[in-house]
Records
---
Amino acid sequence: MIEKYVDSKELKQLLSTLVAIVGCLIIAALFGIIVVPGLRNANKPAKPTAVAPVVGESGWLDPTEFPAQKGRVIPPVDPMTLIKPSDELADIGEKLYETNCRTCHGSLGRGDGPASNVDPQPRDFTAAEGWTNGPDMPNVYKTLSEGIPGTSMASYDYLTKRERMALVHYVQFLGGYGDSAGSAEAMQALAGELAAPGETTNNKIPVSMAMEKLEGEFVFPLPLMIPIDDRSPGADILRRTVTDASRAAQVLHASEIWRAGPDALARSILPDIPSNGFSTKLATLKPSEWQTLYDALLRRIRPN
Ligand code: HEC
């Protein structure tokens, strides 16, 4: 059919032109898909990764979050002032309960706070059965001082004896136990414990604060220094090939492999462009330029 209009030589030409055009289209498409997105990101500096503080689902339910508490030395007290209920203790107890216990045990001590879906469940102070230590004064004091191992009931030994006793009274109030004391023996032991001199409390800080401190103490290496008035070949090549001076310094500081020479440098930084702070322009460097770059970096990045 087509032979009517073109001879076989022209047909061949036509076909090869067609093949060439399709080939060009495929190459253009590949360029658009693979190379362009890479170029677009080439100059974006890598985001520094910060250590995220631990936060519970709603921020404040996390058991690792609690008010920071500084270690203290406390003068000895007359145990009777802590064993006998008082308005002052009631106040302290209520406030401490609100900040330390309510999330698990609930405002009324029914074991139904917003963070109570743990296993075993937080104790319902009003339930008579199933206590591990018991609701008597020495028992609750023991629970607060030692925690209940293997459960989410932690030790509150960082609170002073006075604060712990204030909580004991408040727990007994919520549970409706009046101020039920323990056996004479147990009360004697409690009084002795409360009267013991030289009480200190430990420093206690929440995990998120510990992590912030760590972050603050982690020293980042100085960014690569390239003074504006430095016109040496080394400074020039750094200006051309480094897109993020902090990131580049950090990456080179973390590895020693590149120090072996220009080849090792190329092998270690080329695969990670541009996230390591170097520009795609590195791919076009001549061997002599690699040597210059290597010398310039070696002078600026001190070994660990
Ligand atoms: C993270 C959740 C949580 C917090 C916060 C918490 N508790 Fe508990 N508590 C528990 C759990 C769970 C139990 C049950 C342990 C068991 O079954 O032995 C418990 C048990 C108890 C008991 C009963 C112990 C026994 O003899 O059975 C007392 C008393 C108590 N908590 C008081 C407190 C006080 C006071 C506070 C605040 C200073 C507090 N808890 C904070 C989870 C918590």
---
Amino acid sequence: MSAIFPKGFDTRLRLAAGTVLIVAGALLGVVLYLAHPQQVDTGYMPVQPVAYSHKLHAGNLGLDCTYCHYTVDKSRFAAVPPTEVCMNCHARVREKSPKLQLVRESYATGNPIPWVKVHRLPDYVYFNHQAHVTAGVSCVHCHGRVDQMAEVRQLQPMSMAFCLDCHRNPAPNIRPAEYVTSLGWKPEGDPAELGRQLIAAKHINPPQNCSACHR
Ligand code: HEC
Ligand code: HEC
Ligand code: HEC
Ligand code: HEC
Ligand code: HEC
């Protein structure tokens, strides 16, 4: 600290001035941390109306993501499944469980289960699941190991920097499209080398121009 103040400055004054500088620095740090888009929403894990577990259904039972999110490779939105999909099994499996009371009510009344959305981009951002999934970008790059989560939480910031990091260098994140929902899948060799081959073969070219994501 002494280098900042002229020689002969009173020691107590120097200490006081130093403390002010440190506090100001810490405050600035907090403000920058909170304002930085990378921090926004990461870790967000809302309480859901039904204690549905991906770890059980997608992990242990091995259901494919597209069994429930069946629009993910066909449209912009992945879509949360209608209650009918749950009742394919739960009409017979655990059909009296109190944990499934709301599911049975929803099926009987036709009112959808009020699932709480976990990931949400601002309205001024355009995103498309189909474009990513058919290009061979796995769910795991954006959502993490959902098949190991009892409750879904947001792992990635979904910030502009997050999107652009991959758009600038997609190769390590491209796999054969048939493995996009196998979240634990690893290629034999270098993932980036395989990615480069697929990018060349399929002419994959993620956009970096503003109007691609801000239409
Ligand atoms: C048996 C049906 C089912 C299967 C299979 C399934 N999901 Fe889900 N998924 C749901 C339901 C219901 C919700 C809404 C409740 C919740 O968030 O837990 C959901 C929510 C999600 C969300 C959060 C959506 C949001 O609100 O932002 C993600 C991400 C997700 N699933 C990814 C996956 C992935 C990846 C797989 C495959 C590994 C998968 N799901 C398999 C039923 C399913
Ligand atoms: C392919 C069949 C299948 C589908 C589809 C399915 N489940 Fe399940 N679910 C199971 C099985 C099997 C169990 C575990 C039963 C056990 O523990 O013996 C289970 C357990 C549960 C439990 C815990 C019940 C308890 O009493 O502990 C809940 C809650 C649940 N499922 C919700 C859902 C919801 C919500 C959906 C739709 C989004 C859904 N399930 C779709 C097969 C299915
Ligand atoms: C490149 C990143 C990326 C990939 C890959 C990706 N997602 Fe998403 N996902 C998102 C974003 C961003 C949102 C929030 C979209 C919004 O708010 O408009 C989202 C939202 C969702 C939702 C909530 C419903 C919706 O459509 O808004 C579900 C369910 C979901 N994703 C499942 C999946 C599954 C299953 C896969 C793999 C088959 C997958 N996602 C692959 C980024 C991704
Ligand atoms: C892990 C890699 C990865 C991440 C993360 C990612 N993308 Fe992409 N994105 C791609 C690839 C690869 C393509 C190119 C698809 C092609 O050329 O066929 C693409 C294409 C697109 C397109 C053009 C598709 C169309 O329909 O015009 C948009 C828009 C887009 N991404 C938006 C986003 C946004 C917004 C985010 C962040 C929320 C994001 N992406 C995150 C890899 C990624
Ligand atoms: C690959 C997709 C993508 C591209 C390309 C892109 N953006 Fe964004 N942009 C985003 C996302 C996602 C957000 C939302 C960030 C958030 O919610 O924290 C965003 C947010 C913004 C914001 C809001 C302020 C902020 O930082 O939160 C501005 C301004 C912006 N972008 C300008 C631009 C400009 C200018 C370009 C071209 C040079 C551009 N964007 C290109 C995805 C993109």
